[in-house]
Design goal:
The protein is α+β, with helices and mostly antiparallel strands. The chain has helices at 55-65, 84-88, 91-97, 124-129, 132-142, 166-174; strands at 13-14, 38-40, 48-50, 69-74, 77-83, 114-115, 121-123, 146-152, 158-165. The protein contains six helices and nine strands. Strands 1, 3, 4, 5 and 6 form a five-stranded mixed beta sheet that branches. It has a four-stranded mixed beta sheet with strand order 2-9-8-7. β3, α1 (55-65) and β4 form a beta-alpha-beta unit. The radius of gyration is 16 Å and the shape is globular.
Length: 177
Protein backbone atom coordinates (compact mmCIF):
# COMPACT_ATOMS: atom_id res chain seq x y z
CA UNK A 1 0.00 0.00 0.00
CA UNK A 2 1.50 3.32 -1.05
CA UNK A 3 -0.90 5.72 0.60
CA UNK A 4 2.17 7.17 2.31
CA UNK A 5 2.70 9.06 -0.94
CA UNK A 6 -0.57 10.95 -0.44
CA UNK A 7 -0.29 14.36 1.16
CA UNK A 8 -3.12 16.36 2.63
CA UNK A 9 -2.91 20.11 2.28
CA UNK A 10 -5.37 22.95 2.19
CA UNK A 11 -2.80 25.59 1.28
CA UNK A 12 -3.59 27.90 -1.59
CA UNK A 13 -0.99 27.71 -4.32
CA UNK A 14 0.08 30.57 -6.62
CA UNK A 15 -1.19 30.12 -10.16
CA UNK A 16 1.33 29.00 -12.78
CA UNK A 17 1.66 30.65 -16.18
CA UNK A 18 -0.09 28.98 -19.13
CA UNK A 19 1.93 27.41 -21.93
CA UNK A 20 1.48 24.42 -24.22
CA UNK A 21 2.99 21.30 -22.64
CA UNK A 22 5.26 18.81 -24.36
CA UNK A 23 3.47 15.74 -25.73
CA UNK A 24 6.36 13.35 -26.48
CA UNK A 25 6.68 10.81 -23.67
CA UNK A 26 9.23 8.06 -23.27
CA UNK A 27 8.35 4.48 -22.33
CA UNK A 28 8.85 3.56 -18.66
CA UNK A 29 8.99 0.43 -16.50
CA UNK A 30 7.38 -0.09 -13.10
CA UNK A 31 10.81 0.12 -11.46
CA UNK A 32 11.69 3.50 -13.05
CA UNK A 33 11.68 6.72 -11.01
CA UNK A 34 8.22 8.21 -10.54
CA UNK A 35 9.48 11.69 -11.41
CA UNK A 36 9.83 10.44 -15.00
CA UNK A 37 6.05 10.24 -15.42
CA UNK A 38 5.33 13.65 -13.93
CA UNK A 39 4.78 16.81 -15.92
CA UNK A 40 7.33 18.87 -14.06
CA UNK A 41 6.38 22.52 -13.84
CA UNK A 42 10.03 23.37 -13.29
CA UNK A 43 10.44 22.61 -17.01
CA UNK A 44 6.94 22.95 -18.49
CA UNK A 45 4.36 25.56 -17.64
CA UNK A 46 0.95 24.17 -16.71
CA UNK A 47 -2.20 25.32 -18.42
CA UNK A 48 -4.69 27.11 -16.20
CA UNK A 49 -8.32 28.15 -16.49
CA UNK A 50 -10.40 30.68 -14.61
CA UNK A 51 -13.24 29.45 -12.41
CA UNK A 52 -15.55 31.66 -14.49
CA UNK A 53 -14.70 30.19 -17.91
CA UNK A 54 -17.49 28.10 -19.41
CA UNK A 55 -16.85 24.35 -19.35
CA UNK A 56 -17.29 23.96 -23.11
CA UNK A 57 -14.62 26.61 -23.67
CA UNK A 58 -12.34 24.89 -21.15
CA UNK A 59 -12.79 21.61 -23.03
CA UNK A 60 -11.90 23.34 -26.31
CA UNK A 61 -8.76 24.69 -24.62
CA UNK A 62 -7.81 21.16 -23.52
CA UNK A 63 -8.34 19.76 -27.01
CA UNK A 64 -6.34 22.50 -28.72
CA UNK A 65 -3.48 22.16 -26.22
CA UNK A 66 -3.46 18.36 -26.12
CA UNK A 67 -4.12 18.09 -22.37
CA UNK A 68 -6.86 16.43 -20.33
CA UNK A 69 -6.68 18.55 -17.20
CA UNK A 70 -6.42 22.22 -16.29
CA UNK A 71 -5.51 23.82 -12.98
CA UNK A 72 -8.39 26.08 -11.97
CA UNK A 73 -7.43 29.49 -10.62
CA UNK A 74 -9.07 32.47 -8.97
CA UNK A 75 -7.19 35.67 -8.12
CA UNK A 76 -3.82 34.01 -8.74
CA UNK A 77 -4.49 30.94 -6.58
CA UNK A 78 -5.12 27.34 -7.56
CA UNK A 79 -8.62 26.46 -6.38
CA UNK A 80 -9.13 23.11 -8.07
CA UNK A 81 -8.66 20.85 -11.04
CA UNK A 82 -10.96 20.20 -13.98
CA UNK A 83 -10.54 17.32 -16.39
CA UNK A 84 -12.06 16.41 -19.72
CA UNK A 85 -13.72 13.51 -17.88
CA UNK A 86 -15.44 15.97 -15.54
CA UNK A 87 -16.81 18.00 -18.45
CA UNK A 88 -17.83 15.07 -20.65
CA UNK A 89 -19.15 12.90 -17.80
CA UNK A 90 -22.17 13.08 -15.53
CA UNK A 91 -21.18 16.14 -13.49
CA UNK A 92 -22.67 18.78 -15.84
CA UNK A 93 -26.02 16.98 -16.07
CA UNK A 94 -26.13 16.44 -12.31
CA UNK A 95 -25.38 20.11 -11.80
CA UNK A 96 -28.05 21.23 -14.28
CA UNK A 97 -30.69 19.13 -12.50
CA UNK A 98 -30.30 21.16 -9.32
CA UNK A 99 -29.48 24.61 -10.68
CA UNK A 100 -31.05 27.56 -12.43
CA UNK A 101 -28.83 27.00 -15.48
CA UNK A 102 -30.60 25.42 -18.44
CA UNK A 103 -27.81 24.55 -20.87
CA UNK A 104 -24.47 22.74 -20.70
CA UNK A 105 -22.67 25.60 -22.46
CA UNK A 106 -23.68 28.06 -19.72
CA UNK A 107 -21.96 26.23 -16.85
CA UNK A 108 -18.84 27.87 -15.36
CA UNK A 109 -15.85 25.68 -14.50
CA UNK A 110 -16.26 26.39 -10.75
CA UNK A 111 -19.42 24.27 -10.63
CA UNK A 112 -17.87 21.17 -12.23
CA UNK A 113 -14.23 21.25 -11.06
CA UNK A 114 -12.83 19.13 -8.27
CA UNK A 115 -12.21 21.61 -5.42
CA UNK A 116 -8.65 21.91 -4.13
CA UNK A 117 -9.51 20.13 -0.88
CA UNK A 118 -10.59 17.04 -2.84
CA UNK A 119 -7.75 16.88 -5.39
CA UNK A 120 -5.41 13.94 -4.66
CA UNK A 121 -2.00 15.39 -3.81
CA UNK A 122 1.44 13.80 -3.53
CA UNK A 123 4.45 15.34 -1.85
CA UNK A 124 7.45 16.03 -4.09
CA UNK A 125 9.87 14.42 -1.63
CA UNK A 126 7.88 11.17 -1.73
CA UNK A 127 7.53 11.28 -5.53
CA UNK A 128 11.26 11.93 -5.97
CA UNK A 129 11.97 8.70 -4.05
CA UNK A 130 9.09 6.59 -5.43
CA UNK A 131 8.91 4.26 -8.40
CA UNK A 132 6.44 4.29 -11.28
CA UNK A 133 4.89 1.18 -9.69
CA UNK A 134 4.29 3.11 -6.46
CA UNK A 135 2.44 5.85 -8.35
CA UNK A 136 0.43 3.29 -10.31
CA UNK A 137 -0.67 1.76 -7.00
CA UNK A 138 -1.80 5.18 -5.73
CA UNK A 139 -3.88 5.61 -8.89
CA UNK A 140 -5.48 2.21 -8.30
CA UNK A 141 -6.20 3.00 -4.64
CA UNK A 142 -7.70 6.44 -5.31
CA UNK A 143 -9.31 5.85 -8.73
CA UNK A 144 -8.06 9.36 -9.56
CA UNK A 145 -7.30 10.41 -13.13
CA UNK A 146 -4.68 12.98 -12.08
CA UNK A 147 -2.45 13.58 -9.07
CA UNK A 148 -1.00 16.98 -8.19
CA UNK A 149 2.52 17.08 -6.80
CA UNK A 150 3.29 19.70 -4.14
CA UNK A 151 6.75 20.82 -3.14
CA UNK A 152 7.48 22.56 0.13
CA UNK A 153 9.88 25.50 -0.06
CA UNK A 154 12.50 26.27 2.60
CA UNK A 155 10.18 28.88 4.14
CA UNK A 156 7.46 26.25 4.63
CA UNK A 157 5.20 27.46 1.82
CA UNK A 158 3.96 24.89 -0.68
CA UNK A 159 3.58 25.18 -4.43
CA UNK A 160 2.35 22.96 -7.24
CA UNK A 161 5.47 21.27 -8.61
CA UNK A 162 3.81 19.00 -11.14
CA UNK A 163 0.98 16.82 -12.31
CA UNK A 164 0.81 13.09 -12.96
CA UNK A 165 -1.79 11.77 -15.41
CA UNK A 166 -3.08 8.22 -15.18
CA UNK A 167 -3.59 8.10 -18.96
CA UNK A 168 -0.07 9.35 -19.69
CA UNK A 169 1.38 6.85 -17.19
CA UNK A 170 -0.52 3.97 -18.80
CA UNK A 171 0.66 5.03 -22.27
CA UNK A 172 4.25 5.24 -21.08
CA UNK A 173 4.00 1.79 -19.50
CA UNK A 174 2.46 0.40 -22.71
CA UNK A 175 5.63 1.44 -24.53
CA UNK A 176 7.29 -1.65 -23.04
CA UNK A 177 4.33 -3.98 -23.49
Amino acid sequence: MNSHLLLSSTRRIPAPRPMRPTTNFRAVRLSDAAAGVMTDFEHEHPVTVSEERRIDDALEDMISLGVRALLVVREGRVTGLITSYDIQGERPMQFLDGSTYTRHDEIPVRHIMTPWEQVPVLGWEAVSEASVGDVLEVFRETKATHLLVLETAADGSAFVRGLISRTRLERQLAGYA
